[in-house]
Amino acid sequence: MALTFKLAQLQSKATQASQLVSKHAPLYYKQLLEQNKHYILDPPTVETCNLLSKQLFYTRLASIPGRCEAFHKEMDYVKHIWKNMNELKIEDVSVATLFGLECFAWYCTGEIVGRGFTFTGYYV
Prior knowledge:
By secondary structure, this protein is an all-alpha fold. The chain has helices at residues 2-35, 46-62, 64-83, 90-114.
C-alpha cells in the first residue's frame, strides 16, 4: 500500500516537473540565444558547423608547439630545483608534499569510483 502511494506521489512530482519545463524551456531557449547572438554565425547550417569544427581542430593542432615549449620550460625549472635541492625552503617542500598527497587522494578516489564505490583490498 505504501509503495503504491509513493509511486503515485512520484508520478505527480514528475508530471509537475515536466509541465514546469515545458512552460519555461522555450522562453529560456530564446533568452539564451538572444544573449549569445554575437557567437552565432549566419546562416546556421551544417556546412557552417563543419567549417567551425575544422577550424577548432586545426587551431588546437597549431597550439601544440606552444604547449610543448611551455612543458619544456616547466621541466627545465624542475631540473633546476632538483639540482639545487639544498637551497629549498621548508615552505616549498611542504607545498610539493601537499600537492603530491592531493594527487594521490584524487587517484584513490578515481579508483574507488571506477570500481562502483566498492572498497577492495588484500586480506592478511
